[in-house]
Amino acid sequence: MKLYIYIFRHGETYYNRSRKFTGRLNSRLTPKGIKQSNVIAEKLREKTFQVAFKTSLSRSSDSLKIVLRYHPECEKVIVDDRMIERSYGDLEGKFHKTIIKEFGKRQFDIWHRSYDVPPPGGESIKMVEKRVLSFTKDLVALMKKERVNVVISAHGNSMRPFRRYFENLTIKQMMKLENPYDKYFDYAVES
Q1: What 8-state DSSP symbol labels residue 81?
Q2: Which H or E element spans position 60?
Q3: Element (H, E) at 183
Q4: What whole-number distance in Å separates Cα of residue 65 and Cα of residue 34?
Q5: What's the CATH number where 141 sits?
Q6: pTM here?
Q7: Dihedral pair phi/psi, residue 32, rounded to 5°
Q8: 92 has catalytic annotation
Q9: 104 domain-assigned
Q10: Which of 4, 101, 134, 152 has its CB 3.0 to 4.6 Å from that of 53, i.e. a possible disulfide?
């Protein structure tokens, strides 16, 4: 028997739109972000899942709430911050252009897209991957034990290692991933 995971990125936030480092800061969905979440909800409308996962950040919760309108069969919502967005540390709340102006494009790119170099006071993707893999192992075990399908309202950077795991990607391939706001990814797990 196959069980399914449906994972999607929350809709666009005001910080995303303004090109600010969001990280662990709360930033509300823009009207466009709400529309994107509605697109995901429509795409997932015919799927069934019994358990939903979100993080403690409002953008994850708000996007999931829109999706769950069509899913009365989903009776359990679990908050798990092992898949919370990457911490950008001292860069959080700052505009990308400000960091580029202050530190240069090369340093910005290293902090923004390097696998193993964290921004000052923040996390590298390698650090994010460690906690996401812990979440993934527990997720698969729960699915097999309870024989449930799940939906996950995730974040752009926490989706990277998740997709690397299920799609057997290299680090280089994972780091090139862009996770759109209006598309979900599904993965089968053998029970």
Answers
A1: G
A2: helix 58-68
A3: none
A4: 11
A5: 3.40.50.1240
A6: 0.96
A7: -65, -40
A8: no
A9: no
A10: 152
User: What tokens were used for 19?
Assistant: 């090109």
Residue of 10, 92, 123, 155 marked active site = 10
CB 148 within 8 A of CB 49: yes
Return the amino acid letter for 181.
Answer: Y
Chain segment 120-166, per-residue pLDDT in tens: 999 999 999 999 999 999 999 999 999 999 999 999 999 999 999 99
Residue span of the structural domain in which 185 resides:
2-86+123-190
Residue 162 counted as domain residue: yes
Is 29 exposed, middle or buried (CB count within 10 Å of its CB: 0-12, 13-18, 19+)? Answer: buried
Predicted confidence band of residue 191 (pLDDT cuts 50, 70, 90)? confident
Query: How far is the C-alpha of 24 from the C-alpha of 14, rounded, in Å?
Result: 14
3: tokens are: 């069980």
Residue 160, amino acid: R
**Token pair for residue 86?**
């990457």
Cβ-contact 7, 189 below 8 angstroms = no
Respond yes or no: is residue 46 known to be catalytic: no
Residue identified by tokens 């706001």 is 181
Find the catalytic residue in 85, 92, 123, 129: 85
- Cβ-in-10-Å burial (0-12, 13-18, 19+) of 169 comes to middle
